[in-house]
Design goal:
Elements lengths: L1 H6 L3 H33 L3 H14 L8 H13 L14 H6 L31 H40 L16
Subcellular location: Membrane
Membrane topology: Multi-pass membrane protein
Organism: Capra hircus
Length: about 190
């Protein structure tokens, strides 16, 4: 349709071809948004299982050194989310790091901000965050997923509304949809 319009200089066919491809692209974007919403809703329940598996693995590889990426990640999460361990601070007792250090303490990232003299010792549990990190990470990820789902739904609704408005405008228009730019005189 577009090739015929270009070769025969019929602007209406070129215009219709552009509209056709624009509609196809909009439909693909809309279908992608719907798929994101459906997959996000279906897999949001599976986030907890995946986080549990991953967090167990990362805690087992913790070695307390700054250059290690897993150790930095755990310390960062514990500081930012104000948590300690997987389920609580006692989870650290089962890690290789705890057994190797033999100092009966957890990482300093488990210390509450209000506890100025905290050294991570299990002898002073009131200085440590009581809540585990797994539940907080899952909650945070599910919040993010819900934001993505709502954003995709909002974009889809706006797209549908725009398509509806375009159809209404197209159906209301009477007569030719284009006019000649030059209505007389000579062409240069």
């Amino acid at each position: 349709m577009g090739q015929c319009g270009i070769t025969s200089s019929k602007t209406v066919l070129v215009f219709l071809n552009l509209i056709f491809w624009f509609v196809i692209i909009l439909l693909l974007v809309f279908v992608t948004e719907v798929v994101v919403v459906v997959l996000g809703y279906v897999y949001r329940a599976k986030v907890e299982n995946e986080v549990d598996r991953s967090i167990q693995k990362v805690y087992k590889t913790y070695n307390g050194t700054n250059p290690d990426a897993a150790s930095r990640a755990i310390d960062y999460v514990q500081r930012q989310l104000h948590c300690c361990g997987i389920h609580n601070y006692s989870d650290w007792e089962n890690t290789d790091w705890f057994k190797e250090t033999k100092n009966q303490s957890v990482p300093l990232s488990c210390c509450r901000e209000t506890a100025s003299s905290c050294n991570g010792s299990l002898a002073h549990p009131s200085d440590l965050y009581a809540e585990g990190c797994e539940a907080l990470v899952v909650k945070k990820l599910q919040e993010i997923m819900m934001h993505v789902i709502w954003a995709a739904l909002a974009f889809a609704a706006i797209q549908l509304l725009g398509g509806l408005c375009a159809c209404i405008l197209l159906c209301r228009s009477r007569g030719p949809t284009y006019k000649h730019l030059i209505t007389g005189g000579t062409y240069a």
